[in-house]
Amino acid sequence: MKEQILEALNITKTYESGENRLVILKDINFSLNKGDLVSLMGASGSGKSTLLNILGTMDSPDSGEVRINGIDTVKLKENQLAEFRQNHIGFVFQFHYLLPEFSILENIAMPLLISGKTRNKALLSAAELMDYLDILDRKDHFPAEISGGEKQRAAIARALISKPDIIFADEPTGNLDRETGRHVLNLFQKINREMNQCFFLVTHDETIAAVADRQYYLKDAALTHIKGKEL
Ligand SMILES: Nc1ncnc2c1ncn2[C@@H]1O[C@H](COP(=O)(O)OP(=O)(O)OP(=O)(O)O)[C@@H](O)[C@H]1O
Ligand SMILES: [Mg+2]
Questions:
Q1: Closest by Cα among 196, 123, 120, 208 to 165
Q2: Residue of 14, 22, 41 with the most ligand 1 atoms within 8 Å of its CB, for mutation
Q3: Is the CB of 137 inside a 6 Å radius of any atom of ligand 1?
Q4: What is the CA(52)–ligand 1 centre distance, in A?
Q5: 212 contacts 38 by C-beta, under 8 angstroms
Q6: Is residue 229 pLDDT above 80, yes or no?
Q7: pTM confidence score
Q8: Nearest atom (ligand 1) to Cα of 46
Q9: pLDDT of the residue at 228
Q10: Which of 21, 53, 160, 206 is 20 to 30 Å apart from 170, CA to CA?
Q11: Which CATH architecture is the domain 36-60+77-227 placed in?
Q12: Can you tell me the distance from the alpha carbon of 176 to that of 68, in angstroms, rounded to the nearest whole number?
């Protein structure tokens, strides 16, 4: 039996704008186990990013629980949450958000530096990870000096460096051409297989969604399970 790392119970989220009440998520139940690679598709505006942000503790639901490693994250205060995220969660977005004034090596080491590791240790870990991801030869470059695919690989390395329980990726290939996107996807698969890293992947691309062990679709505020063994 696989170890469960995330359990979301009865998640609801509604936005009010003027007269309108937009029900984005209605009574969603969902869980993730160690080593899972799960994908989520759905039309634009269906609430994928909202769900990802709630599961990733960046946003809070109107009601429901998000338990990560048994901790009800909805109940944590903002400062506790920030520390919780540092230790347990990684994010990769459509845009890389690398800091332009730091080298790629420093960017990747940044989460460790922020969490108080010494500079030497942090840079050494970053270099090891860059080597593993085959981008070590770009370590002294700055973000403006590397390609889009390399930037995304650096963003993945930065998400991975704290050894998070889950990496949430919101359209990580959305800004890349098909071939580069495929390359980045291969990297997710390699990390998933070799490091047993859990990924929650939001994508518009069916071929990308299809590599997941479990595939979901969000429509009318509800999650439909469309492939793989349901938990
Ligand atoms: N702060 C907010 N206030 C009001 N409505 C919001 C807010 N944030 C998001 N929404 C609405 O909630 C819906 C879901 O947004 P969300 O960003 O989760 O969609 P998505 O599925 O990720 O779309 P896309 O594929 O375009 O990224 C959208 O209709 C959006 O307009
Ligand atoms: Mg979105």
A1: 196
A2: 22
A3: no
A4: 11
A5: yes
A6: no
A7: 0.94
A8: 21
A9: 66
A10: 21
A11: 3-Layer(aba) Sandwich (3.40)
A12: 31
Residue type, 82: A
For residue 213, give the nearest of 223, 200, 204, 203 by alpha carbon: 200
Confidence of residue 226 (pLDDT cuts 50, 70, 90): confident
Question: Which residue ranges make up each domain of the chain?
Answer: 36-60+77-227
Report the pLDDT value the prediction gives residue 18, as an integer from 0 to 100.
87
Rounded to whole angstroms, how far apart are CA atoms 156 and 180? 14
- Encode pLDDT of 67-116 as tens digits: 999 999 999 999 999 999 999 999 999 988 999 999 999 999 999 999 99
Residue 2: per-residue pLDDT: 80
| Measured torsion, CA atoms of residues 43, 4, 9, 202, in degrees rounded to the nearest 10 | -10
126 lines ligand 1 (CB under 6 A): no
Higher-pLDDT residue of 141, 17: 141
* Structure token digits, residue 115: 């969490």
Instruction: Please choose, from the candidates 197, 201, 198, the residue with its C-alpha nearest in 3D space to the C-alpha of residue 215.
Output: 201
